[in-house]
């Protein structure tokens, strides 16, 4: 019984363990959870074996108790039958047989009394053992539930750790991309192309301006030539454009 109480105490202690408090104190929570799961699994196996033995012993004790109770009834019935036979034999005048059956009734009553005492002694013990077995079963169920919590916690922790590691790798990759961003090279190349395009546009504009100035010079030269020709025509009195009006002096025009 002391050993079973020790097992019950260990089960209760493990079942009441605060997982979060244990993890807060752990340097490596995943490693500690794996160890806890192993410990819980081993303790559950040990507890199951002990509890199975305890339950088996309880069932045997209960069976013995029921057998003793049945013996009480059986010997009581035998005592009653022997006493009735003794009375009938006495009534028939057969004192010898009456005395024999009376003695048998006394023996049966003695057996009944013996089994009654055994029943009275065994009942509280069997009840206590049955109660202990139920507590052990409840504690074992608590351990299995705690084991399930530990496994879920471990799986959650591992998943979170992997997600955090992946996120850190992504951030580190993004950081390296920011340092050597290929788009920045494209941007610099684009600026270079734009400068080349601007240079070419400037050259084209200068070329166009030069052509325009040449044409303007040519037109100006043409006007000058036309003016000279017309002046010569005026002087000769034969304008190229037709009949000249009568010649007038500048003074006449001014007046």
UniProtKB/TrEMBL annotation:
Keywords: Coiled coil. Residues 235-255 are annotated as: Disordered. Residues 30-57, 133-167 form a coiled coil. InterPro entries: PspA_VIPP1. It comes from the Bacteria. Belongs to the PspA/Vipp/IM30 family. This is Phage shock protein A (PspA) family protein. It comes from Salana multivorans.
């Amino acid at each position: 019984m002391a050993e079973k109480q020790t097992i019950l105490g260990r089960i209760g202690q493990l079942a009441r363990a605060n997982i979060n408090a244990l993890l807060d104190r752990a340097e490596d929570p995943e490693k500690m959870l794996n160890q806890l799961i192993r410990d819980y699994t081993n303790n559950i196996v040990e507890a199951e074996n002990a509890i199975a033995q305890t339950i088996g012993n309880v069932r045997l004790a209960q069976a013995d108790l029921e057998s003793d109770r049945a013996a009480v009834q059986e010997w009581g019935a035998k005592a009653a039958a022997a006493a009735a036979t003794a009375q009938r034999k006495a009534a028939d005048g057969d004192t010898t047989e009456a005395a024999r059956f009376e003695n048998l009734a006394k023996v049966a009553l003695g057996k009944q009394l013996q089994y009654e005492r055994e029943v009275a002694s065994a009942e509280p013990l069997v009840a206590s053992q049955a109660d202990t077995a139920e507590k052990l079963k409840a504690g074992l169920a608590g351990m299995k539930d705690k084991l399930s919590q530990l496994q879920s916690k471990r799986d959650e922790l591992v998943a979170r750790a992997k997600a955090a590691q992946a996120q850190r790798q992504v951030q580190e990759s993004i950081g390296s991309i920011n340092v050597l961003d290929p788009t920045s090279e494209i941007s610099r190349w684009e600026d270079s192309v734009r400068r080349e395009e601007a240079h070419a546009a400037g050259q084209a504009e200068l070329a166009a301006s030069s052509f325009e100035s040449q044409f303007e010079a040519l037109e100006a030269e043409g006007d000058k030539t036309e003016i000279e020709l017309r002046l010569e025509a005026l002087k000769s009195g034969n304008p190229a454009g037709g009949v000249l009006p009568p010649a007038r002096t500048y003074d006449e025009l001014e007046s």
